[in-house]
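Short-chain dehydrogenase: structure, please.
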Amino acid sequence: MGQLEGRTAVVTGASAGIGLATAVRLAAEGAHVFITGRRKAELDAAVETIGPDAATAVAGDVADLDDLDRLYDAVRARGRGLDVVFANAAAASFATLEQITEEHFDRTFGVNVRGTVFTVRKALPLLNDGASVILMSSVRADDGVEAFGTYAASKAAIRSYARTWANELKGRNIRVNAISPGTIDTPGLDAVADTSGASGTSDASDASDASVIKSRFAAGVPLGRIGRPEEVANAVAFLASGESSFFLGANLYVDGGENQI
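Here you go.
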């Protein structure tokens, strides 16, 4: 029997990368996982990967409150409340201070901050006593990577919310914690790497070569490589389970020592 047997979980941004790996892991621990993301075809494929009996897909954008309502209507219809929320969905792109546009700022904060706030806010009526809420922060909130300031600031906001909400919800025995991955090999990293040339952070000759960008990140990791989505999923599963019962308001780094050594 898994550590989450009979539990209900929500994972946002679950069509690929860390979100998908986490949904797979939570389902393997016995949870029924509601997954959401903007691309329906990828979500449908994710359900097949997770297992149709273990996952329900609800397409939507976490920055759209109507889409979040549809997600939680589906959870409510199942009639078992909600035990785990992993607010994972995020948007990232490079832009220096001079290059920041309203669109860049609004999209980044709209998904990463507004989306996270209302993912959790709208889950509150459904959360069972003893539920676990895990917020996706990042080592980028700490390290000042050039041209990544908007993303970094959004992730610093998430870390701050984790502390506040942990204090606000502890009376319901709901644990709120954050997770801060380092550089992880995901489709999202490939997409960010593809934007780096436009931001002036790499030479035009290698701007489209994601492997070059990944190798540069890997060079800054003490373990000598970037991480795998499954390694982050393992940490999320720990925070979702009773094994982390004395974790509250914490920020768990999964970064190969990138921001620790």
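Notes: The CA atoms of residues 157 and 183 lie 19 Å apart.
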